[in-house]
């Protein structure tokens, strides 16, 4: 499997060219593309490359050839009643999605959109040079304070994987991975030396704020580091603003748009590792406004942030560490994202058993999300359950683990083996 090389930053003329090309496309293809052009400066390199690749494909079609390709979709949009007056082409909206989903032609529309995208990407592929893919790592950590069930924790994981017992001190394995060469690919070092602003090759996503302190201060690579605890001031403010809004579905698009435009930087609520990264700040806002529980549950935050990082940035190394959450308080509502600390004066109570269940399920979901993308074929997945000094290792596609599970391995021994076999 191959991947596209990083493209140069698009200049204003390139973005203008993209806008003109987008105007040649059917109405329902425009919102997402226009939104990406508007947000270009805060897109991750993978997103920029993907958009540039697609627009290059569009530009390979003559007006007549593009008309032939897209004519069935234009005709379908007419039958669906899609017009420039009732469909926003500036950005994706809930109203747009609702209009499409209510149509009897929705399934047919989805097939036509997929056909057009595949044809355009195929045209771009023919004129784009490719590079050999790099090895990748997903490290998932279930910390020692979560009492996961050692008899069931790995039962539903990928059958290609294998459990390896660790001879004590399994916390050390995470430290080795974050501090060592697993976290620093040769391409990332080269980008750092060339002065690149790239920080999306290494992601540290943490419920409890431990991972960032493990990263060596001498590392030549910047990390996209997100901590649920460190983001608390921002989360509290966002929850307060969300709960000021009327619970009116008709106003949802406007409410979300206003919150996205809010001058959050002026509030001074960002932790240091996020403050100087505009793309990462926007990532956090998008994550918390997506209605998935990430703003109120630490383990939901870790899982959703990891899934979105994989989708949007395709990092070479992703470390996701789950953690302890509190029990939901009585007479409060998590469904409408109430801040339970402010709504209820009852003390916070840890919930280790349910936190362990949540974390074990959500860690597997991170891997299942990774399996949606072609990069997964070069990816080593390592999930560590520190409470049981156990790890589950899934090698890259087409490779066998080649490591016996008859006796426990030290963290250093397991680390060195994985680095030598799959990540060098």
Name the features.
424 residues; alpha/beta; Alkaline Phosphatase, subunit A; 2 domains; 7-stranded mixed sheet; two-stranded antiparallel sheet; 44% helix; 10% strand
Descriptive notes:
The strands form two sheets. A seven-stranded mixed beta sheet has the order 4-9-8-3-7-5-6, sandwiched between helices. The chain folds into two domains: 2-131, no CATH class; 135-422, Alkaline Phosphatase, subunit A. It has 17 helices and nine strands. It is an alpha/beta fold and 424 residues long. The longest helix is centred in the N-terminal third of the chain and has 20 residues, at 106-125.
Coarse structural class: alpha/beta
Gyration radius, in Å? 23 Å
Count of discrete alpha- or pi-helical segments spanning 4 or more residues: 17
Number of domains: 2
CATH class call of the largest domain: Alpha Beta
Distance between the termini: 17 Å
As a percent range, the share of helical residues equals 40-55%
Strand content: 5-15%
Would you identify the CATH architecture of the largest domain?
3-Layer(aba) Sandwich
């Amino acid at each position: 499997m191959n991947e596209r090389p990083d493209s140069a930053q698009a200049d204003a003329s390139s973005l203008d060219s993209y806008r003109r090309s987008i105007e040649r496309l059917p109405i329902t293809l425009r919102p997402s593309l226009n939104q990406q052009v508007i947000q270009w400066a805060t897109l991750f390199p993978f997103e920029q490359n993907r958009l540039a690749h697609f627009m290059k494909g569009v530009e390979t079609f003559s007006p007549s050839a593009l008309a032939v390709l897209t004519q069935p979709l234009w005709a379908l949009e007419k039958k669906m009643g899609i017009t420039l007056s009732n469909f926003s082409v500036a950005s994706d909206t809930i109203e747009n999605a609702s209009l499409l989903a209510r149509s009897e032609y929705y399934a047919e529309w989805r097939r036509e959109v997929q056909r057009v995208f595949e044809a355009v990407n195929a045209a771009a592929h023919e004129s784009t040079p490719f590079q050999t893919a790099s090895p990748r790592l997903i490290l998932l950590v279930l910390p020692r304070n979560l009492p996961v069930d050692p008899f069931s924790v790995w039962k539903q994981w990928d059958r290609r994987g294998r459990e390896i017992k660790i001879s004590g001190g399994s916390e050390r394995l995470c430290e080795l991975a974050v501090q060592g060469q697993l976290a620093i690919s040769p391409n990332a070092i080269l980008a750092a030396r060339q002065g690149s602003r790239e920080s999306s090759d290494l992601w540290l996503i943490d419920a409890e704020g431990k991972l960032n302190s493990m990263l060596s201060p001498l590392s030549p690579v910047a990390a996209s580091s997100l901590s649920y605890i460190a983001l608390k001031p921002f989360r509290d403010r966002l929850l307060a603003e969300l709960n000021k809004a009327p619970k009116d579905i008709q106003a949802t698009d406007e409410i979300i748009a206003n919150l996205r435009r809010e001058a959050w930087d002026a509030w001074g609520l960002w932790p240091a590792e996020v403050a100087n990264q505009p793309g990462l700040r926007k990532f956090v806002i998008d994550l918390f406004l997506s209605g998935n529980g990430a703003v109120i549950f630490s383990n939901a935050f870790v899982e959703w942030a990891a899934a979105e990082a994989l989708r949007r940035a395709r990092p070479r190394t992703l470390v996701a560490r789950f953690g302890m959450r509190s029990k939901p308080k009585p007479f409060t509502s998590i469904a409408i994202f109430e801040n339970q600390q402010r709504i209820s004066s009852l003390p916070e109570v840890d919930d280790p058993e349910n936190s362990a269940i949540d974390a074990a399920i959500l860690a597997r979901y991170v891997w299942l999300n990774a399996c949606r993308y072609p990069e997964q074929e070069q990816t080593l997945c390592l999930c560590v359950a520190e409470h049981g000094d156990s790890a589950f290792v899934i090698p890259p596609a087409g490779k066998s683990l080649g490591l016996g599970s008859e006796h426990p391995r030290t963290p250093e021994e397991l680390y060195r083996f994985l680095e030598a076999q799959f990540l060098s």
